[in-house]
TrEMBL record:
<dbReference type="GO" id="GO:0005524">
    <property type="term" value="F:ATP binding"/>
</dbReference>
<dbReference type="GO" id="GO:0008972">
    <property type="term" value="F:phosphomethylpyrimidine kinase activity"/>
</dbReference>
<keyword id="KW-0547">Nucleotide-binding</keyword>
<dbReference type="GO" id="GO:0005829">
    <property type="term" value="C:cytosol"/>
</dbReference>
<dbReference type="Pfam" id="PF08543">
    <property type="entry name" value="Phos_pyr_kin"/>
</dbReference>
<dbReference type="InterPro" id="IPR013749">
    <property type="entry name" value="PM/HMP-P_kinase-1"/>
</dbReference>
<keyword id="KW-0808">Transferase</keyword>
<comment type="pathway">
    <text>Cofactor biosynthesis; thiamine diphosphate biosynthesis.</text>
</comment>
<dbReference type="GO" id="GO:0009228">
    <property type="term" value="P:thiamine biosynthetic process"/>
</dbReference>
<dbReference type="InterPro" id="IPR004399">
    <property type="entry name" value="HMP/HMP-P_kinase_dom"/>
</dbReference>
<keyword id="KW-0418">Kinase</keyword>
<dbReference type="GO" id="GO:0008902">
    <property type="term" value="F:hydroxymethylpyrimidine kinase activity"/>
</dbReference>
<protein>
    <recommendedName>
        <fullName>hydroxymethylpyrimidine kinase</fullName>
        <ecNumber>2.7.1.49</ecNumber>
    </recommendedName>
</protein>
<dbReference type="InterPro" id="IPR029056">
    <property type="entry name" value="Ribokinase-like"/>
</dbReference>
<feature type="domain" description="Pyridoxamine kinase/Phosphomethylpyrimidine kinase">
    <location>
        <begin position="14"/>
        <end position="258"/>
    </location>
</feature>
<keyword id="KW-0067">ATP-binding</keyword>
């Protein structure tokens, strides 16, 4: 057997298993790669609420990442919840030495249940330290609006925002339109050219961890050698299968998780 590609995820921990580092590890593993993980924060959350966020010291985050990069042949990096300015700087200091590594940045700002996860100083640090090192950023509408400084409500505004953010940060932007109303969901990628990814809306309350799942899947396919648009297309297909399978489950009493093992263990309708 050929060694699996190693994908490093840098993110927060979700004890309910639906989002964060747990969702990343499940996604990377389900897609046949090897997941290494550096934890930035410990959250107290479930499918209903986030009640506490405890950020780990930046030096501890840095040393976790360094331990992985010193030993494992990492093919791609996914960055999720960072939380703090010092943590962002620590991550950046290591990745600056590894510009060969493609980075997928999911600029997590607010949890599915509505809890803010990133402070103002950290928000200002993302464009300074992490966006310049990223192959692609994957904000939702709220996150893209925050980065742009203007509200985004339509597909045309998504296009304008993606191109503006690309020009500002020299990083490809995939703006996710899942929070927009309508039977069809549209995500817009601008990497110097526009690419559009459409999919039918799946009627389910189980959306916990969708952003984490998509970004770690994109990193996995990039690590496998796919060009960015193809990596996103394959990641979207995987996400839709996980969403469809998860829609038939009831795990928890709130916004439930996806079923990341839909390909290996299909859910009977």
């Amino acid at each position: 057997m050929k060694n699996p590609d190693v994908i490093l995820t840098i993110a927060g921990s979700d004890p309910s298993g639906g989002a964060g580092i747990q969702a990343d590890i499940k996604t990377i593993s389900a897609l046949g790669s090897y997941a290494a993980a550096a934890i930035t924060s410990i959250t107290v959350q479930n499918t209903q609420t986030v009640s506490l966020v405890q950020y780990l010291p930046a030096v501890l985050v840095r040393d976790q990442i360094k331990a992985v990069l010193d030993d494992l042949d990492v093919k791609a990096v996914k960055i999720g919840m960072t939380g703090q300015y010092d943590t962002i700087k620590a991550i950046s200091s290591l990745l600056l030495k590894r510009r060969d590594l493609p980075v997928v940045l999911d600029p997590v700002m607010v949890s599915t249940s509505g809890r803010r996860l990133t402070d103002d100083k950290a928000l200002r640090a993302l464009p300074l330290f992490l966006l310049p090192l990223s192959r692609v950023a994957t904000p939702n509408l709220h996150e893209a609006s925050t980065l742009l400084g203007a509200r985004i409500r339509t597909v045309d505004e998504m296009k304008q925002a993606a191109r503006a953010l690309y020009g500002r940060h020299q990083c490809a932007f995939l703006i996710k339109g899942g929070h927009m109303e309508g039977e069809e969901m549209v995500d817009v990628l601008y990497d110097g050219d526009f690419h559009f990814f459409t999919s039918p809306r799946i009627d389910t309350p189980n959306l916990h961890g969708t952003g984490c799942t998509l970004s770690s899947a994109i990193a996995t396919f990039i690590g496998r050698g796919c060009e960015l648009p193809e990596a996103i297309a394959q990641a979207k297909e995987y996400l839709n299968r996980a969403l469809q399978a998860g829609s038939q489950l009831r795990i928890g009493h709130g916004n439930g998780p996806l079923w990341h093992m839909a390909d290996q263990f299909p859910v009977e309708a």
